[in-house]
Amino acid sequence: MGNYKSQWVDVPVDYKTVTLAVDKKFLKVSSDDGFFSGGVAFNYDRAGDSKLTWANLDLNLSYTKVFSPQVIVSVGGKAAIIQRSFDDAGLRYDGQFDPIAGAFNENLPTGESYDQDGHIFPDFGVGVNLRLQAKQTDELVFRNNRRTKLDVGIALHHLTAPDQAFYESESVPLERRLAPYVTGVLQVLPIVDVVGGVAFQSQGPYGELVMMLGGRVWVKNTLSKKISLMAGMGLRRDKDQDAYWPAFEVSYNNLMVGLNYDFNTSQFDLATENRGGMELSVRYIIRKVRPLPEFKVCPLL
């Protein structure tokens, strides 16, 4: 999968975020009642005049226990390497203001010094997910005709609260972030689903609530071709209402493409004029044909 977001393009310096990830099941070390999965994820974020950059490379591993066709539990963790860096070439400091000329002078010394403009540190996280889903009509072939499911989970990020300071004489721990969530699909008609989710994040004194509700229509739903269209609306809140976004998604067999646009409603809308940012996501699932349980030869051929 891949995800790209460009935020606040109307302000002089916009924010850009890129995420790439791949994961898979390890079928050779799996059993009928459980399986291992693993993957790699890369995230890059750059913001502001200082080009403050966050880049992380994650190694993920999980185990999924299948208690029944309707109850599935997954536990997992990640180990990551994070780099934070900045470039002060685009910054302006109080010391560069010339009181005699009454203007900014970039040739004046900044009066600032940094021990380092980049920092690399390890990071760890854990999580658990419970899935409750409708029993499928066929265990051998996925017919996609019973789609109701509910996922409830929680993740804890930055387990060791790593130090992210740019000054060697100071310590700035990256506070632990707790992230519970609920997502679900409710099949209301053979070709219509209601989709939704709620996610909350808490990190130190900060908190954020994200909600989304929408509907999906299956234009085609056969064994050889699956096409669906989804439209919905999302809402983000911190202490106040922060943003809302319409979201659209098109899926064709194993390919999914999603697009949403973030409309800012916080006090920052004085600068953004309610224009937030576009986000594009692409996901492709590589599926192998499941082998038949038995192989028989017809004597007439």
Fold and architecture overview:
- Helices cover 1% and strands 61% of the residues.
- By secondary structure, it is mainly beta.
- It has one domain (2-284): Porin (Beta Barrel).
- The strands form 2 sheets. Strands 1-2-3-4-5-8-9-10-11-12-13-14-15-16 form a 14-stranded antiparallel barrel. It has a two-stranded antiparallel ribbon with strand order 6-7.
Proportion of beta-strand residues: over 45%
DSSP helix fraction: under 10%
Number of domains: 1
Shape-level CATH architecture? Beta Barrel
Give the C-level CATH assignment.
Mainly Beta
- What is the CATH T-level topology? Porin
Strand arrangement, largest sheet?
1-2-3-4-5-8-9-10-11-12-13-14-15-16
Estimated structural class: mainly beta
User: Which runs of at least 5 residues are low in confidence (pLDDT < 50)?
Assistant: none
Q: What's the shape?
A: elongated
Q: Keywords for this structure?
A:
16 strands; Porin; mainly beta; 301 residues; elongated; 14-stranded antiparallel barrel; two-stranded antiparallel sheet
Please specify the SSE layout and strand pairing.
Elements lengths: L1 E6 L7 E17 L2 E14 L4 E17 L2 E15 L11 E2 L4 E2 L13 E16 L15 E9 L19 E13 L2 E12 L2 E16 L4 E12 L3 E12 L2 E10 L4 H4 L2 E10 L17
Antiparallel strand pairs: 1-2, 1-16, 2-3, 3-4, 4-5, 5-8, 6-7, 8-9, 9-10, 10-11, 11-12, 12-13, 13-14, 14-15, 15-16
How is this structure best summarized?
The protein is built from one helix and 16 strands.
